[in-house]
Automatic annotation (TrEMBL):
This is Pentacotripeptide-repeat region of PRORP domain-containing protein. It comes from the Eukaryota. InterPro entries: PPR-containing_protein, PPR_rpt, TPR-like_helical_dom_sf. Transmembrane segments: none annotated. PANTHER family: MEMBRANE-ASSOCIATED SALT-INDUCIBLE PROTEIN-LIKE, OS03G0201400 PROTEIN. Keywords: Repeat. It holds the Pfam family PPR_2. Belongs to the PPR family. P subfamily. PPR repeats lie at residues 51-85, 86-120, 121-155, 156-190, 191-225, 226-260, 261-295, 296-330, 331-365, 366-400, 401-435, 436-470.
């Protein structure tokens, strides 16, 4: 690429032309970052010094592709070549680092800005506050705000929207209420901005009806509101599944002559997608494009995620192709959503092809992308591919997280490779990872699937032996742990199974719907469908929250009974043991659950055709 760039510049110089900002901008917009970077280097060699705007375009292009480290390299190079960075430069890089969750590096740059003779702007302060809020560190966000005020930098509507949303989402509601009151009496903002924030604050507080009433009253008095207020209500309606109210607010907004923003479109599409109204969402998107409203890549990503949520792979693929047709280059978020959707649909090979395409375009895959692929390969039993991707992560400077490790442990357990699973578990501590309850449950489940109940029992004992250490980290055996052990005990040697169940009962095991399903499944496996139906009838007397699996198991038991299938593999003692466990479950539900109305008997949902 460097040789090509050198040749281009040489020819331009021969005819008296210099490489221009617009030439580099065109290359970068086409995704040709490497060519653009080479051209910038060559320009410098020919003493055609690029200006700050040129550097900013390149820095922004790297940030959009998730290459914050490369962007920082260009900032340092820019300074070394005596080109002073601007507030735009620092704002772009800090925003990229905050989006990555790298608040440590963002903070270093933020506090280094004054050394360059630049005062951080309101935008940069807002970016830092937003980063801390998204990292759920409201304390640090408040400190940045206080520092901003002490330095005489004026907050704007965005500042307060960030803080109020943060208080209501991750902090204390009373702090959000207090901030709203302070803003209303401080005179810091003009009235229109104050009204917008009041609507936004009510939405984040969950007071949607009050927010709508306030908006209608404000407009009724002839007072101005901006797109921000309407976006807050539309987003709040979409979050709670009130897509019709969201559409009504949108139409109301158009009536008052307020132009929708990209956020308006994203929120409406999110609401429609959550309800599965993908056709309506697609039509709405097309109308927005036809009318010339601003549409960002994030809008397509929302719709793409919606298609995958309802398992409409053709719809997702068609939308992806439409993005390409419209000249919209997918960003890291869009690639991540597409790869994750394909992996969840079991199309991990296709997802890997998209991953390669993503890498070739200069995008840097993040942990989410790698975890999607690693999980997909583990589910397909292709553990060697998953391990190769984990090594690739490390080589690219990404650290596998707890999700990565849990998926690999699960992959080993599925293949019965318990030694490798335990080795991976032991390797977590030196790398700074702490096992969570999912890690322990996965390993216990692996032992049970390998019919090694001794190993499962020993591992559970180690959990309790760790005592306070695990509890202090929030790792406590849960219903998954108990149900996994119980399922394994049901197929173990009876004497050992009874001892194991006695331990579980001593540990205050509380049965739930999964427990019922485990026991009904065991009755069916041991050729006792009449027992499954009998207990199903008893349990239907209570609000036991039968799920789809329960109905399928009872349906299977009924058909097995009708066919008089002789698949009995259990002894009378095993059957008695299952009866004992089911009685404990029944007794617990009897004592803790209200009775169900006879007209709501869930057994009516079972397919009794052929009776």
């Amino acid at each position: 690429m460097g040789a090509e760039a050198l040749e281009v510049v040489s020819r331009m110089r021969e005819v008296g032309l210099n490489p221009s900002l617009s030439a580099i901008a065109i290359l970068l917009r086409k995704g040709l970052i490497t060519v653009g970077e080479s051209l910038l280097h060559v320009m410098w060699k020919f003493q055609c010094d690029p200006d700050g705007i040129t550097y900013n375009i390149l820095i922004n292009a790297n940030c959009e592709r998730g290459q914050a480290d490369d962007a920082l390299h260009w900032v340092h190079l820019m300074i070394a070549r005596a080109c002073k960075p601007s507030t735009v430069t620092f704002s772009t890089v800090i925003n990229a680092l905050c989006k990555e969750g790298n608040m440590v590096e963002a903070r270093k740059i933020f506090y280094g800005i004054p050394d360059m003779g630049i005062s951080p702007s309101t935008t940069i302060y807002n970016t830092m506050m937003d980063g801390y809020v998204k990292a759920r560190d409201i304390g640090q966000a408040n400190m940045i705000y206080e520092e901003m005020r002490n330095k005489g930098i004026s907050p704007d509507g965005i500042t307060f929207n960030i803080l109020i949303a943060g208080h209501y989402k991750y902090g204390r509601e009373e702090d959000g209420d207090r901030l709203l009151k302070d803003i209303s009496v401080s005179g810091l903002l003009p009235d229109p901005s104050l009204y917008d924030i009041m609507v936004s604050g009510l939405c984040w507080a969950g007071r949607l009806d009050d927010a709508i009433e306030f908006l209608e009253d404000t407009l009724g008095k002839g007072l101005a509101l901006s797109v921000v207020a309407f976006n807050s209500i539309i987003a709040a309606c979409s979050r709670v599944g009130l897509e019709q109210k969201a559409l009504k607010a949108y139409k109301f907004m158009i009536t008052f002559g307020i132009t929708p923003s990209s956020s308006t479109c994203s929120s409406l599409l999110m609401g429609l997608s959550k309800k599965g109204n993908l056709q309506e969402a697609r039509e709405f998107l097309c109308k927005m494009i036809e009318k010339g409203f601003p549409i960002k890549k994030a809008v397509f990503t929302v719709l793409l995620d919606g298609y995958f949520r309802i398992a409409d792979l053709d719809g997702a693929q068609n939308l992806w192709n439409e993005m390409v047709r419209r000249g919209i280059c997918p960003d890291v978020v869009a690639f991540s959503a597409f790869i994750n959707g394909l992996c969840k649909a079991g199309l991990v090979e296709e997802a890997y092809d998209i991953f390669l395409d993503m890498s070739m375009r200069g995008f840097v895959p993040n942990n989410f992308v790698y975890n999607s692929l690693i999980g997909g390969f583990c589910n397909r039993g292709k553990l060697s591919y998953a391990l190769k991707l984990e090594r690739d992560m490390r080589q690219k400077g990404l650290l596998p997280d707890i999700f990565t490790t849990n998926m690999i442990i699960n992959g080993f357990c599925k293949q019965g490779r318990m030694k490798s699973a335990i080795d991976t578990f032991m390797d977590m501590y030196p790398t700074g990872l702490t096992p969570d309850i999912v890690t322990y449950n996965t390993l216990i489940g692996g032992y049970c699937k390998a019919f090694d109940m001794v190993g499962a029992d020993e591992f559970l004992y180690k959990m309790y032996a760790s005592g306070y250490e695990l509890v202090s980290r929030g790792v406590v055996p849960d219903s998954v742990t108990y149900n996994t052990m119980m399922n394994g005990a049901c197929v173990d040697i009876l004497d050992r199974a009874m001892i194991l169940m006695a331990k579980l009962l001593k540990l205050a095991f509380l049965p739930n719907t999964v427990t019922i399903n485990v026991l009904l499944s065991q009755f069916c496996k041991q050729g006792k469908p009449e027992k499954a139906l009998m207990w199903g009838q008893k349990l239907s007397e209570f609000s036991t929250c039968f799920d789809k699996i329960t109905y399928k198991l009872l349906d299977r038991a009924y058909h097995n009974l009708q066919e008089d299938s002789e698949t009995s593999s259990g002894t009378a003692e095993n059957s008695l043991f299952l009866d004992f466990l089911m009685y404990i479950t029944y007794d617990y539900l009897c004592r803790n659950k209200p009775c169900r109305d006879a007209s709501q008997n869930p057994l009516k949902l079972i397919d009794f055709k052929g009776s």
